[in-house]
Amino acid sequence: MRNSLTISSKKTIISPSEIFELGFFNPASSSRWYLGIWYKKISTRTYVWVANRDNPLSNSIGTLKISDNNIVIFDQSHTPVWSTNLTGGDVRSPVVAELLDNGNFVVRDSHNRFLWQSFDFPTDTLLPEMKLGWDQKSGINRFLRSWKTPEDPSSGDYLTELEARGFPEFYVFKRDSIVYRSGPWIGNRFSCVPEMKPIDYMVYNFTASKEEVTYAYRITKANVYSTLSLSSTGLIQRLTWIEAAQNWKQLWYQPKDICDNYKECGNYGYCDASTLPGCNCIKGFEPRNEQEWALRDDSAGCVRKTRLSCDGKDGFVRLKKMKLPDTTATIVDREIGVKECKERCLNDCNCTAFANADIRYGGSGCVIWNKDLLDIRNYANGGQDLYVRLAATDLEDMRTKSAKIVGSSIGVSILLLLSFIIFRFWKRRHKRSIAIQTPNVDQARSQDLLMSEVAIPSMRSKSILLRLIHRQVHSATMN
């Protein structure tokens, strides 16, 4: 773009391969006008970027043009309502604006240097090759902000950004409160998004270095369109365009259920969507407030039954298929394995848990938690192993209970087998007694006596066995 662009002219800027289009638009039943980018090749109008989302034009009189090496939107009285805000620097004129085939709207100088790009200022949608997260060199933090409603592109209540501290992960905020987190990147996906499986046409890229902490993805097949967006209701969703159906297909979305709510079960509690109630204490812990827990107010969480001794006798309970706890206060070492990670945790009195930092190829790397564990859940499919530190006393109690349960189960099985054998023996003898046919009264009496001798002990045996089985089952339940 070298000249101006006006609403009245109805002209637009189109990317070289006609994939994206930039121009002015006004949402349905609205008199406000916005500058935006949408897919040109897709029949359903899908906006992926909006420039003046919080400063719309009040009517259809507006102009977009380059002014003092900036892109500026002017209203009907020639007052600027939005600008790229470039100041100073070594800028070689002429400056031009261009829409690229990846949907990036850029300002470049005569040396083809990018002076500004829309990819640094996303709205609610992450496009392929766009990055979310921190650029340490430029100081830019790229995040997504939802639309206010599906028909209102102004800034909504929800925001998602990458927390670079500790073991980086995405958080979703509703206003100032955290409502969801993605979990850390564990090699091939985010910990809390088990549905984020490899796709043959998509490559994920997570970078954590001194220069940047970012997440991006790219599409490897032509004519495949896929986006990651934050909806006006706070859902992070992966959408792919299905040409045959002429609509967007939702591949996955988060949060999905009550267990995805941030800190649903408090400290040291974990959520399991398959249990009722959903909140449970980690083994070796108990509800902080029994009365509130009974009323299903689980926000107070759980506390240790026994304090850690930090004398080398502490151990770990292994929790499988878990969502890793909040990782803000963690230490990460990608060079060691799970055995070294365990030793390091035991030698640190502040360590409360550890896990692999990368789940690929059998697991590698080490992440250690040094504070309370919170926002944990269990998955039917997905998740990873989490090792929680417990006092030796609690570990011994767990082993004793397991041994009692196993012993009781074996005892019950043996008694059931014996009762079956005796029943079969009694049934066989009963059939034989019926088969004896004679008109002699003495023989009939003898038969009755035989039946009594066989049946009475058998009934007593069954009664005794039932009482024994009941005691064993009751003992197993109590233990």
From TrEMBL:
Subcellular location as annotated: Cell membrane
SUPFAM superfamilies for the chain: alpha-D-mannose-specific plant lectins
Domain named Bulb-type lectin: residues: 1-120
Record keywords: ATP-binding, Cell membrane, Disulfide bond, EGF-like domain, Glycoprotein, Kinase, Lectin, Membrane, Nucleotide-binding, Serine/threonine-protein kinase, Signal, Transferase, Transmembrane, Transmembrane helix
A single GO molecular function term of this UniProt record: ubiquitin protein ligase binding
Alphabetical list of SMART domains matching this protein: B_lectin, PAN_AP
Superkingdom of this protein's organism: Eukaryota
Protein name stated in the entry: Uncharacterized protein
